[in-house]
Amino acid sequence: MFERKSGIILIAGIGFFALAFLSNGVVPMLMYRHIPEKPAKELINGHLRYQFEDLAQRFPSAFEKVYGKPPEDPDHAGNWYNEKCTDALRLGRSIYVSEGCWHCHSQFVRPVSNEDRRWGAVSKSWEYQNELQRPVMFGTRRVGPDLSREGGRRSNDWHAVHFFKPEALSVGSPMPEYPWFFDGSPDQPNVRGMALLTYIQWLGSWHESYPYYEDYLPIPIKTASNAE
Predict the structure, then answer these.
(1) Within a 13 Å sphere around the CA of 135, how many CA atoms are in the beta-carbon half?
(2) What is the spatial distance between Cα 216 and Cα 120, in angstroms, rounded to a whole number?
(3) Which residue among 56, 66, 117, 156 is least crowded, i.e. fewest CB within 10 A of its CB?
(4) What is the pTM of this model?
(5) pLDDT (0 to 100) of residue 9
(6) Structural domain of 14
(7) Cα 72 from chain centroid (whole Å)
(8) Are both 135 and 217 inside the same structural domain?
(9) How many domains does the chain have?
């Protein structure tokens, strides 16, 4: 077996597979085993809260239909927004998986081929230590762009139109239309649409450099801790 080229290739292949498993699976697991896995409610940060409150401003009637009317008292509004945002994140993640979005969009920026120039900072292991990254959707196909840093790149209404009719914004896009995320038009996202918009805007929101392309007004809360 070892005297044949095919045998050598087979052994080398098994060896490289084992090395990749150790370096990319076992070693990171051992390095970060002391870091607790965060639940969804602990993933709400100032950037995401801005985007979630922005949904209430851009789509007021649709937002109130889905989540109810936000409390007028600022002391109660913070907890209310956090609870609704947490529910939206969980549902949005579920919809993202069930609709097969991960078939065409990866969520892992690799340190090769200048990927960081296209999609932002190279992915780190600590970013995946939370409830919403189970299972992790690293992906291998990129029919569409990687979405690891999508949050903040574009506004909520851009994403709404893109989900409703992708070719209206990206000519020749192979992405299918998702009219069932809306009650008739892109300015009327339903509970599924609101949830998916929230999830998309969460991706990468934990980075200091967020947002990448759009100059938003200052977030309506001073720090993420004040959003409790």
Answers:
(1) 7
(2) 18
(3) 117
(4) 0.82
(5) 83
(6) 1-31
(7) 29
(8) yes
(9) 2
Is residue 89 located within the same domain as residue 17?
no
The sign one gets for the Cα dihedral 173, 179, 181, 187 is positive
Considering only CA atoms, give the Rg of the chain.
20
Q: Is the dihedral of CA 193, 199, 200, 205 positive or negative?
A: positive
Pairwise CA distance, residues 143 & 175, whole Å: 9
User: Is 70 in the same domain as 23?
Assistant: no
Quick: pLDDT tens for 35-53: 788 999 999 999 999 999 9
Residue whose structure tokens are 């109810």: 68
User: DSSP per residue over 36-103, as a string?
Assistant: PPBPGGGG--HHHHHHHHHHHHHSHHHHHHHH-PPPSSHHHHHHHHHHHHHHHHHHHHHHHHHTTGGG
pLDDT of the residue at 49: 94
29 or 39: which carries more pLDDT confidence? Answer: 39
